[in-house]
Amino acid sequence: MRIELSRFSSRLKRVFSIPRLYGLLGPRAYTVMMFSAIFFTLAVKFFHSYRTGMINEYFGWILADIAVLLGIEVILALVCFRWPRSWVIRIACVVAAVVCTWSVINAGWVIRSGMQILPTVFVSLFLDPITSIVTIITNIIHMKIAAVILLVPTAVAIVFFFFVLAKPLPPLYNRKPFAARIIVCVMFIFIAALSRSALARRSSPSIASAGLHYNSQLRAVNSLFSADPWRLTSADIANAKRKIPAFDQVQIPLRSKPKDYNVVIIILEGVQYRKTSLWDRQSNLTPYLADLAGQGAEFSNFRSSLTHTTKALFGLLTGRFPSAFPDTAEAVPVVKPYSSLATILEDQLNFRTAFFQSAKGNFESRPSLVSNLGFDKFWSREDLDDQTAFLGYLGSDEFSMIEPIVTWIKSDEKPFFLTVLCSVSHNPYEVPEWFATPFGEPAERYQQTISYTDKFIAALDSKLTELDLGKKTVFCVVGDHGEAFGEHGMFGHIRIAFEELLHVPLIIRAPSLVEPETRVTEAVSSVDLTPTLLALLGFDPNAADFDGINALGQVPDDRKVFFSGWLQESPAGFVIANKKFLYNPTDKAVSLYDLSVDPYELSRIELTGPQAQRIASEIITWRKNSIFQLNQERVGRKTLFDSWQCRWINRLAWAKRYPDVIN
């Protein structure tokens, strides 16, 4: 028996030995890689269709992949058949390896976001490679099974690829079988291409499905070189006419004697309106937010103007639209701070100003954005002495900010403007151990962080009361953008324009200035916050050239509230009352959602003809007009807040902490 097992084992070793496997697969290297690309693509789309309940969409999603990837394989096979030389085989293998690598990256992105990846996603990797890599590793840790399924075969494929490059084996072709193989592949390509058109017409019109109908490789190339009018080009950037005024170019008149109030704004990171007790009063997830809304004004139809934190912060704190472009132009250091809520309050009412955040300061070059907005003080996770309060790769315990905030408030008798940016509700959604044991699933962890943030808001508000400041403080809680958890088959917040991303909380409590139980139901936006707060303090915001309006005043019934995603290929649109108009550049479609009868956006109404063209043109024009001039050197560096060195290239900025740097 042992002898037979020994013989069987030796046979397996001979059959599956590396030289023998290489001899078998080496002459077919590019084919192996191309079919690996097909496998990864088809497998991940099946997984996504299964987890989102869209199995009936699956075949429509994969037909373009079959046509394109098989087409590439056929071309490589014909080239190697015609010129069976080592350098040709190496080039074919490099092409196949690039295609396969993109398929693996795309598979990971589909698992994480529910969307196919595009080259613009890599902007963040360029800006902050260390944080981006840590983010990727964190996501891998939280998706262990998917990571193993993707990474183990990828590692094997990489080793195989370098074997082939070092020692290419020419394929041995038998003309008849080779010709038959090519004919069969071409037939599959034609059938897939023809069937895709038919299935696309019959499939669900949801945006999630439309994005997955395309082949990711072809879509990526097209996104770089297409002449789509939606795409913003370098010429659009260079010819931008819009200018953001500097702090000394804006003087806003007072309508009455200025109100003797402090201002506190707490900005929630990625919190959906529907995940709070504001949406469902029976929910006990955010009881303090619900109580706070009863003490002042709740804006139940408030939306983020752009679903990216840097962009949203700029809109919230300046009253002007950020540039709807995948850059961080708002954070590129400028010679003079922009006109903002901070600069207006400091220059005209002698306020002191501070920006506190529990996240890392180098994330999206926050110090330079805060400096551009005119704040005197910046505090971030790097200022914490206790590193045990750090949470994940980005955030920290929000409660650790309370003591330094109180210290800053007590340091001077002058009125103050304080902005606090939370971070715990950002991916990877971790709460401190003292608060609770973190849940397992991302959606559960996310809700847990929202509950935790509600407790932090209550604690900070309590401190203001202890300092006898509650009755003389305008206390505001607002969201930057929401977060998706598969409501429409997508996850995250980069390229999504559904209400789970746009609809966020806004509450303003101002004792004696805002009546309790005030409820504003008109559609308002991030850019309305600054003019609204200025109006409360006695200013006349109509005298300034804001993009926003006083949301506590008269809101026109026909007002268009514009919004956009961050990336080039993101949908954008506007809301009028409860009608939401959307332009999706993926399929060039214009659609309408009637939110009064369809609040969850399950029934998309397709618009066509002149009406659709007019709406698409209006949205495209708004987006292009949002780009502002950046009157700054192309490349540079600047030290800010004593210890932050901020650098920039064109419209991209990043920052690094140097504790010993002194201005």
Précis, in short:
The protein folds into 2 domains: 16-225, no CATH class; 247-544 and 556-657, 3-Layer(aba) Sandwich (Alkaline Phosphatase, subunit A). 43% of the residues lie in helices and 14% in strands. The chain contains 21 helices and 22 strands.
Descriptive labels:
2 domains, eight-stranded mixed β-sheet, Alkaline Phosphatase, subunit A, alpha/beta, five-stranded antiparallel β-sheet, 43% helix, 663 residues
Intertermini distance: 81 Å
* Tally of strands: 22
> Helix amount, in percent?
40-55%
Q: Give the CATH architecture of the largest domain.
A: 3-Layer(aba) Sandwich
- Structural class category: alpha/beta
- Whole-number count of domains: 2
As residue ranges, the low-confidence spans are 12-16
Note the main sheet.
8 strands, mixed
Oligomer, anyone?
Answer: single chain
Radius of gyration: 28 Å
Strand content: 5-15%
Q: In the CATH hierarchy, what is the class of the largest domain? A: Alpha Beta
Mean pLDDT: 86
Please, how many helices? 21
Tell me what you see in this structure.
Pfam families: Sulfatase. It is a multi-pass membrane protein. It comes from marine sediment metagenome. The chain has 663 residues and is α/β, with parallel strands linked by helices. It folds into two domains: 210 residues, no CATH class; 400 residues, Alkaline Phosphatase, subunit A (3-Layer(aba) Sandwich), CATH 3.40.720. The protein has 21 helices and 22 strands. Strands 5-4-8-1-9-12-2-13 form an eight-stranded mixed sheet, sandwiched between helices. Strands 15-16-17-18-19 form a five-stranded antiparallel sheet, with helices on one face. Strands 20-21-22 form a three-stranded antiparallel sheet, with helices on one face. α4 runs antiparallel to α5, α4 runs antiparallel to α9 and α5 packs antiparallel against α8. It is elongated. About 1% of the residues have low confidence.
